Amino acid sequence: MGQHIQSQGDREVGLSQIQELYRKFADECPSGKLHLHEFKRIFGITSDSTEEEMAYMENLFRSFDTNHDNTIDFMEYVAALHLVLRGRLEDKLKWSFKVYDRDGNGRLDRQEVKQVIKIIYKLRQHAHHPDTEKLSPDQICERIFELIDQNHDGQISLQEFIEGAQRDTWVMEQLRLDIRPSGWFIDHQNKNS
């Protein structure tokens, strides 16, 4: 079931496209370190981009900076690309959890979930995403907690996050950070070519 959810709507990213991203890394970062402004530029985020797109990219950058040195080295970059473009569903969910967990305590509170849901909600509205519902980000957050906070302690553990997303397709769609990453990547590659 989980693999079906992961693959819905995603287009395949070819090896040549992935190699192009590696080439861009080397061109943009001859020092071997990628800073936030370079990360945004590689992915087509400019001063014309929306505030939500910028916030989303900052969250992604932070999640890929595994050693917390405010840069992404080549190995972190390769691991990030592999995860987002070809990773298994469970690995993507673990990564998503890490992005949501801004304080790094291993549990999600309502404020953390609400903050990311608001970004995703605005990105979907901006992109005229067909899954944008009539629920507000606050209502989406409350519904997520009702559906996956199994012990009703007001926090979501990694296990509750993964199990809840795999159990309920609506929850999966709300928690997904990648918003069809392969399609997004291919569209940006076509624009930049």
Task: Describe the protein in words.
- The chain has helices spanning 2-7, 15-28, 36-42, 51-64, 74-86, 89-100, 110-126, 137-148, 158-167, 169-175, 181-192, and strands at 33-34, 72-73, 107-108, 156-157.
- The strands form 2 sheets. Strands 1-2 form a two-stranded antiparallel ribbon. A two-stranded antiparallel sheet has the order 3-4.
- With 193 residues, the chain is mainly alpha-helical.
- Helices cover 64% and strands 4% of the residues.
- It has one domain: Orthogonal Bundle (Recoverin, domain 1), CATH 1.10.238.10.
- 21% of the residues are buried.
- The protein is built from 11 helices and 4 strands, in the order ααβααβααβααβααα.
- Helix 4 crosses helix 6, helix 4 packs across helix 7 and helix 6 (89-100) packs across helix 9 (158-167).
Can you summarize this structure?
By secondary structure, the chain is mostly helical.
Q: What sequence of helices (H) and strands (E) makes up the elements?
A: HHEHHEHHEHHEHHH
Number of separate helices: 11
Approximate shape: globular
What percentage of the residues does DSSP assign to strands (E)? under 5%
Helix/strand-derived category reads mainly alpha
Task: Tell me the number of structural domains.
Answer: 1
Q: What would the CATH topology be?
A: Recoverin, domain 1
